[in-house]
Amino acid sequence: MKYNKEELLKEAKKATAVETYEYTDRKNHHIHTDCVKYIGNGNFDKSEIEGLPYDKHGEVDVDIEFMDREDYDSTLCANGDMSWDDMYAEDDIVLVIVVR
User: Fold this and answer.
1) What are phi and psi of 73, to 5 degrees?
2) How confident is the model at residue 83 (pLDDT cuts 50, 70, 90)?
3) What DSSP element (H or E) covers 75?
4) Rounded distance, CA 3 to CA 59, Å?
5) Domain that residue 70 falls in
6) Given its phi and psi angles, is residue 41 left (phi above 0), alpha (psi -120 to 50 degrees) or beta?
7) What does the DSSP 8-state code read for residue 44?
8) Residue 1: pLDDT above 90?
9) Could you tell me which of 13, 5, 18 has the C-alpha nearest to residue 72?
10) In sequence order, which residues have a C-beta less than 8 Å from that of residue 96 and are 6 or more positions away?
C-alpha cells in the first residue's frame, strides 16, 4: 500500500521504535529475516521514515506491521544471532516498514 511521509509518521506515534527494510526477493513478500534487508539509519526511530524512497508524488509502496516481542523474535530475529532482548524492553512495540 502507498503511504506518504505524514501517514507513516502518524503510524510511528503508535510504536516505541521504527525499523525500515526492503524485500530481497520480488516474489516472496514475507516479513522474515530470510526475505528482508535492513535499510534504516540505525536510530530505530521515526527518522528512519525520512530515508525511504518516496516517488515523485511523495509516496512509497510499503507493507507495515506492528510487532511485539513474540512477532519480532519469530520473524526478524529468526535464524539470526539477535533477539528482542538485545534491543527492546518487554512491552515495546516496533513499527516495521518494508519497501515493496
Assistant:
1) -65, -35
2) confident
3) helix 69-75
4) 5
5) 2-99
6) alpha
7) -
8) yes
9) 18
10) 19, 21, 31, 64, 65, 66, 67, 72, 76
pLDDT tens string 9-67? 999 999 999 999 999 988 888 899 889 999 999 999 999 999 999 999 999 999 999 99
Give residue 71's pLDDT band: very low, low, confident or very high (50, 70, 90): very high
pTM score, two decimals?
0.94
Q: For the residues of 76-97, what is the DSSP string, one character each?
A: TSTTSS--GGGT--TT--EEEE
Phi-psi region of 42 (alpha: psi -120 to 50; beta: other; left: phi over 0): left
What distance, in Å, lies between the first and last C-alpha atoms of the chain?
9
- Indicate the number of domains in the chain: 1
Contacts of 58 (CB under 8 A, 6+ apart): 4, 5
